[in-house]
């Protein structure tokens, strides 16, 4: 009887352990499945592009920790993980599949020449790649660069420009503070990023040739799975809603019905403005969306037509 009890006990223990292992395996599989369905985005680890990218994610309600001490951070409310990298490492990381997508300056993407696709132009972190020379030089044209030494961190883009224009110049590749090169005798000119131009001015340089315009790009690996492409589409939908709301104002006003058609005619709304009846039969409420660039001009016309109680509010996101 005792041996039977021991045997039964062993069976129960075995079944119990099997159940624990099965549960553990199921949980582990769910973790793996969750990670597989995550979209990984490479983001510059510091600088203006980092700040603009994190702001875009926040406005799209994708919550990500901006900790610079952690290389890989997972979003708390969206199937996305952020990989923080140097900007010049992002194109290769996306092309090789280390990251699925990445936010990178167009200048870096073109310079690296990696095999990735442009998913979207993001419209921020705009700058240009330009040639600059000491301000006291009498510059007559691009031929001035013949026989000169040019310092740059973008040798490939510069080479293409020089070849296109038939210029023979020596390219001196450096990283870091390119703008100090002419001042210390390292080069005759520089080819570098220009935003406001203040850095050039502080180093007694002036911009003479704009070679290319640049902005932030969202680039993607060409071999994304269908599941990851669906996550990407969700993210792009959010980005578009944020972008469509930029420089837009939601305007509400009370308008006299006698001049309602005139008021509607001057409103460049998305479609037709919303008209709401009021307690006073001679008045109605008009709701519409205005572009910031036309805002004051249109508001002045509305006032002349008798609109009153004009209320203006910013738009956070807009689904068109």
Give a structural overview.
By secondary structure, the protein is α/β, with parallel strands linked by helices. 35% of the residues lie in helices and 28% in strands. The chain contains 9 helices and 15 strands. The protein has a 6-stranded mixed sheet with strand order 2-3-1-4-11-5, with helices on both faces. Mean pLDDT is 87; it is low at 24-35.
SSE order and pairing:
Blueprint lengths: L1 H35 L2 E6 L3 H12 L12 E3 L5 E6 L4 H7 L4 E5 H7 L4 E5 L5 E8 L14 E4 L2 H10 L5 E4 L15 E6 L3 H5 L2 E10 L1 E5 L5 H19 L3 E9 L3 H7 L7 E4 L5 E9 L3 H10 L3 E7 L6
Parallel strand pairs: 1-3, 1-4, 7-8, 7-9
Antiparallel strand pairs: 2-3, 4-11, 5-11, 6-9, 6-10, 12-14, 12-15, 13-14
Helix content: 25-40%
> Structural class per helix/strand content?
alpha/beta
- Give the beta-strand count: 15
Element-level helix/strand string = HEHEEHEHEEEHEEHEEHEHEEHE
Radius of gyration using CA atoms only: 30 Å
Uncertain spans: 24-35
Helix run count: 9
Major β-sheet, in short?
6 strands, mixed
Q: What distance lies between the first and last C-alpha atoms, to the nearest angstrom?
A: 77 Å
| Strands in their spatial order, largest beta sheet | 2-3-1-4-11-5
Mean of pLDDT = 87
Q: Which oligomerization state do the chains in this entry correspond to?
A: single chain
How much strand content do the residues show? 25-35%
Basic shape:
globular
């Amino acid at each position: 009887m005792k041996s039977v009890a021991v045997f039964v006990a062993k069976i129960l223990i075995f079944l119990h352990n099997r159940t624990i292992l099965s549960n553990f395996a199921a949980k582990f599989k769910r973790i793996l499945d969750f990670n597989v369905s995550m979209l990984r985005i490479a983001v510059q680890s510091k600088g203006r592009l980092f700040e603009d990218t994190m702001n875009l994610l926040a406005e799209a309600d994708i919550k990500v920790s901006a900790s610079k001490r952690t290389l890989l951070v997972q979003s708390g409310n969206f199937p996305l993980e952020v990989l923080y990298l140097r900007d010049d490492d992002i194109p290769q990381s996306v092309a090789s599949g280390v990251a699925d997508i990445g936010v990178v300056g167009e200048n870096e993407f073109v310079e690296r020449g990696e095999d990735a696709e442009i998913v979207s132009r993001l419209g921020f972190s705009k700058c240009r790649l330009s040639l600059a020379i000491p301000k006291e030089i009498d510059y007559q044209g691009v031929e001035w660069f013949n026989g000169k030494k040019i310092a740059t961190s973008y040798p490939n883009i510069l080479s293409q420009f020089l070849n296109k224009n038939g210029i023979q110049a020596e390219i001196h590749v450096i990283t870091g503070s390119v703008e100090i090169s002419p001042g210390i005798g390292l080069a005759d000119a520089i080819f570098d990023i220009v935003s406001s131009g203040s850095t050039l001015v502080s180093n007694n340089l002036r911009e003479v040739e704009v070679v290319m315009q640049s902005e932030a790009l969202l680039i993607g690996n060409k071999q994304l799975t269908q599941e990851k492409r669906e996550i990407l589409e969700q993210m792009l939908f959010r980005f578009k809603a944020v972008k469509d709301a930029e420089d837009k104002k939601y305007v509400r006003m009370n308008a006299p019905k006698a001049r309602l058609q005139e008021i509607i005619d001057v409103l460049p709304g998305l479609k037709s403005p919303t008209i709401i009846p009021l307690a006073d039969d001679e008045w109605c409420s008009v709701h519409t969306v205005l572009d910031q660039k036309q805002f004051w001009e249109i508001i002045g016309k509305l006032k002349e037509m008798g609109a009153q109680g004009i209320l203006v509010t910013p738009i956070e996101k807009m689904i068109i």
